[in-house]
Design goal:
It is found in: Cell membrane. The chain crosses the membrane at residues 45-64, 70-91, 103-122, 193-212, 233-257, 263-282, 303-324, 336-364, 376-394, 455-475, 487-510, 522-548, 568-591. Pfam families: PTR2. With 599 residues, the protein is α+β, with helices and mostly antiparallel strands. The protein folds into 3 domains: 24-122 and 190-324, Growth Hormone, Chain: A; 123-189, no CATH class; 340-599, Growth Hormone, Chain: A (Up-down Bundle). 64% of the residues lie in helices and 10% in strands. The chain has helices at 32-60, 66-82, 84-95, 97-115, 192-222, 231-259, 262-281, 303-325, 335-342, 345-368, 371-394, 400-408, 426-448, 455-477, 488-516, 522-546, 559-595, and strands at residues 25-26, 29-30, 123-128, 131-139, 145-151, 154-160, 166-169, 175-179, 184-189, 409-410, 412-413, 417-418, 486-487, 551-552, 555-556. The strands form 5 sheets. The chain has a 7-stranded antiparallel beta sheet with strand order 8-7-6-5-4-3-9, with no helix packed on it. A two-stranded antiparallel ribbon has the order 1-2. The two termini are 50 Å apart. The relative contact order is 0.14.
Length: 599
């Protein structure tokens, strides 16, 4: 029998078990979520701030042509999504998530700071019929720049013609010389030292991201015991931190880059990354017990060796980047085999691994799993392949769409102020923040009514929407002004459509993999999922290369040709994405049958 206090007997304080402070929550979730939310917010602030600048930095500061710049951007983002496979494994086996996150944050901060040292802007030059000429750049009172070929005492203005030829105009504005299509080549005289510094910075960010990206999410998962229904909501809150950080940085970093200089934009990204590191490093014990090292007392701690080995990845990635930049263009008519042979080393590694992994795992599943397990794995693999298509097109945001914003978009907001080209990427993050709760409520309501679309249908809708986004922008091109620029609202409309598409596919992808995979290979299937995103990033760079436009000193010579080129590419991929989305929806009953009730 247990004594119970009465009105006449003194009530003693309950000191039997839990300190009330230990039960403090943050919006009903473990209080540690607030720190991890803020850590991720600042890390994404740095990452997306740098991403908003990168393609413009390559084309305007180093004066790389579109093909080199977008190819390098695609290779960099491919490595960013590939390295978490290794970083996650090393954290699980040796480091623990917390040390991996801190190490990754330090490397990324160093990488962003290194990008601040870009040296002087490259000096443009042109090669005309095999002869090299200096190029001068002049800006008038309205800020309009004109490029001139310096031919002795002559200053010949450069004007691209609609047919691909280049006219060199004299002082009277009349053509003194017309250069045949393909006979005018532009480039920049850039410092090999500063190019090396820039590539090393990208290598450091790639390696650091591999340690940070998977392990901060792992720590969030550790906050919730098995079966805790708050887990999904907790990750939704955490996901909002990503988009708040990216929204702020994609406004502020390009602003500083425009007003102060490239170094200031990258420096702000580095400061954000340092803030992220400090929140984990100086946690005051608030994260004790989460993300700790798996090394048991008496076992050898291999952390220092792993840190040293990770740095070996920097020169390896450097070689991949230089090989990517120097790879020859595919020869027309060489066919698929010739195209694959012409791929740079990074392309061969990504495509080769993906093309071996997908059928290889399916063969293993057929031999070792039951009929049901094999069909579920087959459904997962089909969706993974379609996932490559989606992210290939969605990730034009950082390359071809940013260049489109720079060249063929009127960036004025109601005539009050103007955004920079890099700042236009903020639309995606802003729309995610606005529409994520609306979409979540809509799926919940549809599910309650038994009308929520299946996973394959959601994937198909996402593909159709990403196609509609490009078609919407092409339609807007019909209303371009005399300067061959469209209103910024057409580009914002594309990002709105793409954001809704992202919300149809991104939240369900990883969950789908865990539900459909055979338990013995779920980790491997997660690796294939991230590999598919990595392949998509690389292919996105190839697609952006198709939209390449001839430039001189970082500027196009004919805005009409530029607009026509982008419209042609966007029309093609818009139609292709819509058709592929319809195909997936048509296949969805079969795929759903293979899923055996997985929702």
């Amino acid at each position: 029998m247990v004594d119970t206090p009465t009105a006449d007997s003194p009530r003693e304080p309950d000191i039997s078990h839990v300190n009330p402070a230990e039960e403090a929550t943050w919006f009903g979730h473990p209080r540690q979520l607030a720190r991890l939310f803020t850590t991720e917010m600042w890390e994404r602030f740095g990452f997306y701030g740098m991403r908003a600048l990168l393609t413009l930095y390559l084309t305007q500061h180093f004066l790389f042509g579109d093909r080199q710049a977008t190819g390098l951007y695609g290779g960099y983002t491919a490595l960013v999504y590939l390295t978490p496979l290794i970083g996650g494994y090393l954290a699980d086996q040796y480091l623990g998530s917390k040390r991996a996150v801190k190490f990754g944050a330090v490397l990324m901060a160093i990488g962003y700071f290194t990008l601040c040292f870009g040296g002087e802007t490259a000096k443009p030059f042109a090669t005309v019929d095999g002869q090299r000429y200096e190029v001068a750049i002049e800006k008038n009172a309205e800020g309009v720049e004109t490029r001139y070929v310096l031919d002795g005492a002559k200053r010949l203005a450069i004007k691209g013609n609609d047919d691909g030829t280049v006219a060199l105009l004299g002082a009277d504005g009349q053509p003194e010389r017309t250069v045949a299509k393909g006979a005018f080549q532009s480039d920049g005289e850039r410092s090999p030292f500063y190019v090396t510094v820039m590539l090393l910075a990208l290598c450091l960010v790639s390696v650091g991201n591999g340690f940070f990206k998977p392990n901060i999410s792992t720590m969030v998962g550790e906050l919730y015991p098995a079966g805790d229904r708050r887990r999904d909501t907790g990750f939704t809150i955490f996901y909002m931190g990503i988009n708040i950080g990216s929204t702020l940085s994609q406004l502020l970093c390009p602003l500083l880059a425009t007003m102060v200089g490239w170094w200031a934009g990258f420096g702000l990204a580095a400061i954000g990354m340092l803030a992220s590191w400090a929140l984990i490093q100086f946690d005051g014990g608030r994260l004790a017990g989460y993300g700790e090292s798996p090394v048991k007392p008496g076992q050898r701690d291999r952390a220092l060796g792993i840190y040293a080995a990770a740095l070996i990845g920097v020169p390896i990635f450097y070689l991949l980047f230089t090989n990517l930049m120097n790879a020859p263009d595919p020869v027309a008519g060489a066919g698929l085999i010739g195209y694959i042979i012409a791929l740079p080393l990074m392309g061969k590694l990504l495509f080769g691994t993906f093309l071996i992994a997908v059928p290889g795992i399916l063969i293993w599943s057929f031999a070792n799993g039951s009929r049901v397990e094999f069909q579920m794995m087959l459904a997962a693999m089909v969706l993974i392949v379609f996932n490559v298509v989606f992210w290939t097109l969605f990730e034009q945001a950082g390359s071809s769409l940013t260049l489109y914003a720079d060249r063929n978009t009127d960036l004025s907001i109601f005539g009050l102020f103007s955004l920079s080209a890099g700042q236009t990427q903020f639309f995606n993050a802003f729309f995610i923040v606005v529409f994520a709760p609306i979409m979540a409520a809509m799926w919940t309501k549809l599910a309650a009514a038994g009308r929520e679309p299946s996973i394959p249908v959601k994937f198909g809708i996402a593909l159709m929407l990403v196609g509609f986004g490009f078609l919407f922008l092409v339609f807007g091109g019909r209303f371009a002004g005399a300067d061959f620029k469209v209103a910024i609202w057409w580009l914002a409309g594309l990002y709105l459509i793409h954001s809704v598409a992202e919300l149809c596919i991104s939240p369900v992808g990883l969950s789908m993999i865990t539900k459909l995979s055979i338990a013995r290979v779920v980790g491997l299937m997660m690796g294939v999922w991230f590999l598919s995103v990595s392949v998509a990033q690389y292919v996105a760079g190839i697609v952006a290369q198709v939209a390449s436009v001839e430039t001189v000193g970082g500027q196009v010579t004919n805005l009409k040709v530029s607009l026509d080129t982008y419209n042609g590419v966007f029309w093609t991929i818009g139609l292709a994405a819509t058709a592929i989305g319809l195909l997936l929806i048509a296949l969805s009953p079969v795929i759903r049958k293979w899923m055996h009730g997985v929702q």
